[in-house]
Amino acid sequence: MRQCVLVEGAFERPEPLVAAMLRAGFGPPVRCETLASALQAVQTSTTELLILPVSSIGAEQRGVLENLLRDSSALAAIGTASEASTEIVLDTMRAGIAEFLLRSATADEFTTAITRLERRWSMAPVRGSVIAVFCPKGGQGATTVAVNLAHAIARRKPKRVAIVDLVVGMGDVALQLDLRPEYDVGELALKVDRLDRELMQSVAADGPDGLAVLAATERLDLAPVLTGDVVSALLAQCRQIYDHTIVDCEHAFESRAVAALDAADTVLLVAQLQVSSLVVAKRTLTIFRELGYDDDKVKVVINREGSTNLVTPAEAQKVLGRAIDARIPNDFGVASEAQAEGKPFQRHASGSALAKSYETLASMLLGPISGRAAKATADTANGNGATKKGRLFGLLRR
Fold it and tell me: Sign of the CA dihedral 54, 56, 60, 66?
């Protein structure tokens, strides 16, 4: 069900228009008293429609509104005013607002505007990105990288980021986040013919800081059902719902993993500064080239880098025949305590080098954090020093 944010004062009689909105497939609108609060609601939810009085657009809100409408093809706005003067209509257009209505608009006029927007939405390009985290050799910490990267991105964009666990029977994403989801990706595989936004969001569990978690199925009998085609359909739907989807892939070149790798905009190849790990990584890079992946699509991430490594980063780059893109430090104490409590590193020890390395990784992939997102990130980190009384992955409850 699609979501609309309605700023108070946009319409003289909103109730008949709300009924038309429900008929068009929207849920009851989120009502906000001010445009500032409405913009905040849009930034922290999957909103498709924003309705606002043009007179509410102040200098402070204009830039935020224009950026939101420019950056998201899934979001459209309807502006309203008491009169349709040339100046008001032009000001509406300059702000990037797609439709203009009088505050006294009828339900039919509103429905006509929605119909025009439907054509716009149907032609809009899919913009959500997919990042696949992969390592064909187990024990390299790929799941840990996927979880903490997803959380680092989610702290910037609450309600806009998902993590998908494709490790059938042995997935640890939910475990590392201390979650016990009622549903998992197995439910989506069984209902792939009915896969839509509403189904996917009903299956996703609520993780920390607005992260949506599509947990792995524990049912091994569903492995034949969760095919590569199903994974492709699942990730295509994720693109329509979330700004960023992080995928924790299985440790093998089988159909599910290859489908995720093919669908991904970026592949993070996780390795360690160990001879056996680097040899496997080198072979994997060769396979990636055979699969037709551009070098820019693949990023090499060295995990658990520390003083005890016998191979240096420079030597690793010679073995791999390419540069290392990111390095995650080894901090056994922080990692083990955070995972025992089911918390991302940023929530357990936000000031640690380990936690900061994931902010750096997110910045490498998304660009530097700024503005409102930076403040939200700082606010989230404050007071998140963890107690040491965690529930050891919640094992006693499983």
Answer: negative
CATH fold group of domain 129-397? Rossmann fold (3.40.50)
CA distance 4 to 50: 6
What's the gap between Cα 99 and its chain centre? 28
Q: What is the pLDDT of residues 76-106, one digit of tens each?
A: 999 999 999 988 988 888 889 999 999 999 9
What are the Cα distances from residue 328, in Å, to 111, 157, 340, 359?
Answer: 52, 22, 19, 11
Q: How far apart are CA 323 and CA 302, in angstroms?
A: 11
Of the candidates 307, 301, 361, 304, the one whose C-alpha atom is nearest the C-alpha of residue 331 is 304
Rounded distance between C-alpha atoms, residue 350 and residue 95, angstroms: 38
CATH classification number, 4-123, choose in 3.40.50.11030, 3.40.50.2300, 3.30.420.40, 1.10.10.10? 3.40.50.2300
CA triple 263-216-190, angle to 5 deg = 80
Bridge-based pairing state of the strands 30-32 and 161-165: unpaired
> What distance in Å separates the CA atoms of residue 89 and residue 300, rounded to the nearest whole number?
50
pLDDT per residue over 212-266, tens digit each? 999 999 999 999 999 999 999 999 999 988 999 999 999 999 999 999 999 999 9
Grouping H, G, I as helix, E, B as strand and the rest as coil, residue 366 is helix
Strand order in the sheet with 76-81: 30-32, 4-7, 49-53, 76-81, 99-102
Count H helices and E strands in the chain, helices first: 17, 13
CA 340, CA 330: separation in Å to the nearest integer? 17
Q: What are phi and psi of 189, to 5 degrees?
A: -65, -40
Enclosing H/E stretch for 367: none
